[in-house]
Amino acid sequence: MNLPRDKRVLLGVTGGIAAYKTPELVRQLGAAGIGVDVAMTEAAREFVTPVTLQAVSGRPVWNDLWDARVPNNMAHIELSRDKGLILIAPASADFIGKLANGLCDDLLSTVALARECPLAVAPAMNRQMWEHPATQRNVQRLRDDGVEVWGPAAGDQACGEVGMGRMLEPEQLCERVVRAFTPKVLDGLRVLITAGPTFERIDAVRAITNLSSGKMGYSIARAAWEAGAEVTLVSGPTALQPPPVARVEHVASAQQMLAAVNSCVATTDIFISVAAVADYHVLNPSEQKIKKDAHILTIELAPNPDILASVSALANPPFCVGFAAESENLDEFAEAKRRRKRLPLLAANLVQTAFGADDNELVLFDDQGRHPLPRAPKIEQARMLVAHIASIYEPQ
């Protein structure tokens, strides 16, 4: 299959125990529509076999500088020419040192020096090796040379120690590869997103909430990050792992969400209000658990602030994008909400087909009319929404 350059990666695997994760990385990249060729160092072959990587990639694996399978016998030149990115994962301390000093004594290091495409490295090593001044100098030199350094993370290590040096997980590396290939249509813009439900306390153990999973808001945060935005995500209670955005703030109630939004809205270019904010909160919630008895329990509710309306009503508001989850009359209710809150764009869906699901079907409403998006996984919906926002965005 001949994929375009912006959909092909050369994955370089060096010697380290984290190499056992590379078959899963190759599988995830393939699932994301990205073709992968693999080049290995001799040390890498001690940790994972070429046969395994060939099986998951569906492509020959390379490790010989003199490989005769390339017609001109210049694998070190040809391997990167149809690639949009070279990713070295895991990148050992030794290999990082080679890259930083322009050394090339095998196929992978020579390809890295002869490349025309961007280069990223995912360090993986013992914490003391990572913290050593020589490694830190080499990493800084790579950054100065324009090489992206993805990670490392902190955690348990194969040597039994705990600290910085773990390679990022395959899912995290796949996210960054996808971002590297995404057009930066929101480059330089600051985007604030609310996501998830709110949690309005009744007593010490009970609360009023809703069925929002947060999946749509988290997907939009990821799509905006992929598009180059500086993203702040304000999240109600969810079980989701946040995307690697600039800032994540976890809140519970609508009042807390409003405070978090107000703390950064003045420096925001685009505000996307995706959270399913409770319309009411409990007056005088109990500090202790309310004991069950045979009597009817009466709870007094008071309206919560309308976060989106308060932001759109500012004297100098950001570009505001609203969400509407309706159970009926989608077009009528969504367009009325957009006009009432003076929004340039509103995305709407039916709650029967959206809450908790992994896919979605959105309809976008703006001054130009109605724009239905085809049903798709929420991350794809989020990417289509971000592209639409970029096409109509105007500084407020």
Describe this structure in words.
The protein is an alpha/beta fold. The chain is 31% helix and 23% strand. A hairpin with a 5-residue loop joins β7 and β8 (162-166). The longest helix is centred in the last third of the chain and has 15 residues, at 378-392.
User: How many individual helices?
Assistant: 13
Helix content: 25-40%
CATH fold category name of the largest domain? Rossmann fold
- Count the beta strands: 22
Classified by CATH, the class of the largest domain is Alpha Beta
| Uncertain parts | none
Structural class: alpha/beta
Q: In what range is the share of β-strand residues?
A: 15-25%
Sheet with most strands? 8 strands, mixed
The domain count comes to 2
Query: How many angstroms does the end-to-end distance come to?
Result: 45 Å
